[in-house]
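We were asked to recover a plausible sequence for a given structure. The inputs and outputs are reproduced exactly as logged, with field labels preserved.

PROBLEM: sequence recovery
POSITIONS: 345
GIVEN STRUCTURE:
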């Protein structure tokens, strides 16, 4: 017997990916609903052989489903997340709204699966930021082996992390460069085509100079992995449609060389190591688009600190960075028997 599932934000990039991954992972679904804002009512999305018409978020009765996958943005999660949780279903939320709520577990199944038991306080589980998810899948086995003291990470984030409008902007600017000139930016503050932008999300007003995205990486690492790890992040938007890359420098408390790290990562869940020290012997966003795992390359010793490693991490941000991780959380709930099924009519 499967579950009754609702996908909120069904017409967005991540929402559509959620339907694909529910199918690909054969998650047990008996009934599924596509939920969106009133302006998207009647729009169609597909799941398996079904064509689903979007239903209005404000009119849908969430007490009739077992599980809700939300990817409609922070304002929608703020307005609806707890209300839906009180109606009965477990909510897996992809926005940033609940991530640092002490009563809401923040989960990457390969990193902190046991924390999932804490969902009962609000019936909500938070999905982490797309860059944090891929990073921590790679860091967790290394932290278990040698304990991480500090990380310095620079991200190379694709435009799909901002949404469809950003993907359209990159496409339109790229075409325009070769015709009449790139149209002015609307989504980003600078032209993204043939450029990189060292700003993801807004700048914080605390005087630190950090952006919200950079702070998320630190805060979420502390919540899921270890509050004592020092984190310095610089988040950069690049002219890539799908796939986030991260250059990571790690300082450990105890020795861990590149050969040992490579073997540890090869045995770890959710990871693929592609690390040939030759031209092209590494993973890039283009190759990992549509893939489930997190890929690790360029593993090498850092001689500038006592116990240091550098590595390159890349993953599909719409999958492991968002929709895949959400469905893996649902799978974890299913495997542990934590979803209360409503009787089918």
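RECOVERED SEQUENCE:
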């Amino acid at each position: 017997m499967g579950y009754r599932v609702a996908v909120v934000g069904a017409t967005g990039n991540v929402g559509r990916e959620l339907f694909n991954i529910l199918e690909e992972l054969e998650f047990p679904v008996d009934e599924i609903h596509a939920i969106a804002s009133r302006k998207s009512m009647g729009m169609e999305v597909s799941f398996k052989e079904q064509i689903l018409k979007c239903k209005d978020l404000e009119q849908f009765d969430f007490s009739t489903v077992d599980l809700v996958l939300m990817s409609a943005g922070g304002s929608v999660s703020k307005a609806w997340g707890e209300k839906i949780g009180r109606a009965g279903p477990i909510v897996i939320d992809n926005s940033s709204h609940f991530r640092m709520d002490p009563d809401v577990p923040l989960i990457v199944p390969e990193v902190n699966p046991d924390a999932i038991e804490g969902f009962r306080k609000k019936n909500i589980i938070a999905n982490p930021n797309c860059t944090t998810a891929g990073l921590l899948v790679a860091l967790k086995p290394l932290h278990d082996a040698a304990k991480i003291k500090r990380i310095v990470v620079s991200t190379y984030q694709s435009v799909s992390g901002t949404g469809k409008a950003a993907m359209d902007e990159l496409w339109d600017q790229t075409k325009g460069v070769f015709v009449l000139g790139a149209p002015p930016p609307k989504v980003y503050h600078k032209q993204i085509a043939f450029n990189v932008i060292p700003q993801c999300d807004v700048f914080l007003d605390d005087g630190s100079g950090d952006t919200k995205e950079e702070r998320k990486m630190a805060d979420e690492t502390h919540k899921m992995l270890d509050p004592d790890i020092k984190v310095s992040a610089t988040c950069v938007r690049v002219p890539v449609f799908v796939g986030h890359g991260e250059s990571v420098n790690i300082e450990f408390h105890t020795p861990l060389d590149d050969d040992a790290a490579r073997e540890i990562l090869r045995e770890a869940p959710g990871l693929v190591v592609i690390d040939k020290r030759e031209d092209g012997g590494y993973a890039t966003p283009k190759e990992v688009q549509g893939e489930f795992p997190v890929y690790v390359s360029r593993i090498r010793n850092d001689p500038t600190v006592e116990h240091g490693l550098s590595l390159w991490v890349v993953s599909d941000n719409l999958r492991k960075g968002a929709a895949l991780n959400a469905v893996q959380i649902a799978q974890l709930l299913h495997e542990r028997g934590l979803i209360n099924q409503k009787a089918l009519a």
